[in-house]
Design goal:
Elements: H1 2-5, H2 8-25, E1 32-35, H3 44-55, E2 61-65, H4 72-75, E3 81-83, H5 87-95, E4 98-101, H6 113-123, E5 126-129, E6 137-138, E7 149-154, H7 157-166, E8 174-176, E9 191-197, H8 203-206, H9 217-226, H10 229-237, E10 241-244, E11 264-266, H11 275-281, E12 282-287, H12 292-298, E13 303-306, H13 310-316, E14 319-320, H14 325-328, E15 333-334, H15 337-349, H16 356-365, H17 373-384
Parallel strand pairs: 1-2, 1-4, 2-3, 4-5, 5-7, 7-8, 9-10, 9-12, 10-11, 12-13, 13-15
Antiparallel strand pairs: 6-14
Length: about 375
């Protein structure tokens, strides 16, 4: 029975990994691997890789991506790109000293995570974690007791303090450098006719097969907002476009959402937009608990929080810590659909400018506010790990 449970794919994977391990031990080098999702190059990893290739071209830094992915076309110009899950991926995974990713074990070949965890001490590499989002609450999967992270990169000072206090890492394992993607966001061209509605995911919905999605408050509230007559009239009368962009983990539900409003576009495919460019371009962000509001506010642009399920979210998904939208947020908080529409109208009257009290809160979070984030990440890795 045990022999039948071992698939040919796992046997091949194990052999590739073990062969790479043997070869790599004879040729261990100061190689840095960088990855996001296997099909993406659009976030901190991409920005940091581009910086390293331009500023430190002699450094052996490589990016892992599926070369069939759309994002490959924009990263291939920098060279040092490795096909994800290829033999070279296995080999360089074992030869390298630094793994940089937005995911825990993100640089690892897809099927080799179990083996890699058991051989990390043999390979003696270090993991650098640059998360997609700001860690403003407590995420269980990122706690030190569950990870092999050696350096945790933070975007803001209160976030840094939160990681030190609640996540179990020492001060040597956490660096307040700022996120690489923030370096380029001062060079933005804002479209004052564009609003983005970008809610985060709900683990207790997406990971629960017994949940009927159309009965969830998540679906009901956003579907009602997308079809609200007052919002529709406002957008049409002011020639404003609103893009509804679902979180990656909720994208499997995107086809449930419908609207007859010609000024609202539902992003049914995440390839329609580069999320970083979309955030740079939009004049106003409407979100719930997504950490994209930190980046958006960093660009000195207004945010509206729509938190209709606040109690449920903080009970079931994300234990809150230092941050609450009411106390620390960078914009007004709405709990009902009508409040959201009213706040959108108010923001237009203010020419989509961030109000002073919210700008001050943003600067309290971002004590470092410049375009040197990539360089600080590089220096932190060199000083603490290399």
């Amino acid at each position: 029975m045990k022999m039948k449970s071992i698939s040919l794919k796992k046997v091949i994977m194990s052999l590739k990994y073990l062969l790479a391990l043997v070869v790599a031990k004879k040729d261990k080098r100061d190689i840095w691997l960088i990855s996001e999702r296997p099909t993406q190059a659009r976030d901190n990893g991409y920005c940091f890789f581009k910086y390293m290739r331009c500023q430190y071209p002699k450094k052996e830094v490589y990016y892992l991506i599926d070369k069939k992915a759309d994002d490959y076309n924009k990263i291939k110009q920098y060279g040092n790109v490795i096909q994800f899950d290829s033999w070279k991926h296995y080999l360089y995974y074992c030869k390298s000293k630094i793994h940089i990713s937005a995911h825990v074990n993100g640089c690892c070949p897809n099927d080799a995570i179990g083996i890699s965890r058991r051989t990390k001490r043999i390979l003696n590499f270090k993991d650098v974690f640059i998360p997609h989002g700001v860690s403003y609450g407590i995420s269980e999967f990122c706690l030190k007791k569950y990870t092999d992270i050696n350096l945790y990169i933070c975007s803001g000072k209160p976030e840094y303090e939160n990681i030190i206090e609640n996540y179990g890492y020492s001060e040597d394992e956490v660096a307040y450098t700022g996120f690489p993607r923030l370096d380029n966001w001062k060079d933005k061209k804002v479209d004052y006719k564009l609003i983005v509605l970008m809610p985060t995911w709900r683990a207790y919905i997406a990971q629960n097969s017994s949940v009927y999605f159309m009965d969830t408050q998540y679906f009901i509230h956003y579907q009602e907002l997308l079809n609200d007559d007052e919002l529709s009239d406002f957008l049409e009368n002011n020639d404003i476009k609103l893009i509804f962009y679902l979180h990656n983990e909720m994208r499997k539900y995107v086809n449930y959402f419908k609207t007859n409003n010609k000024n609202i576009q539902i992003a049914y495919d995440d390839r329609e937009y580069d999320i970083q460019n979309l955030l740079k371009t939009a004049a106003l962000l409407i979100t719930d608990y997504s950490s994209v509001h930190f980046d958006f506010a960093y660009m000195n642009k207004p945010v509206i929080y729509y938190q209709f399920d606040q109690k449920e979210f903080y009970q079931k998904q994300y234990e809150n810590s230092f941050f609450s939208a009411e106390r620390n947020g960078f914009g007004p908080v709405a709990y009902e659909k009508k409040e959201v529409v009213d706040e959108i109208k108010k923001s237009l009257k203010l020419n989509f400018q961030m109000e002073p009290q919210f700008y001050n809160k943003m600067r309290e979070f971002y004590r470092i506010y410049d375009d040197k984030n990539c360089e600080r990440v590089y220096q932190a890795i060199e000083e603490r790990l290399s």
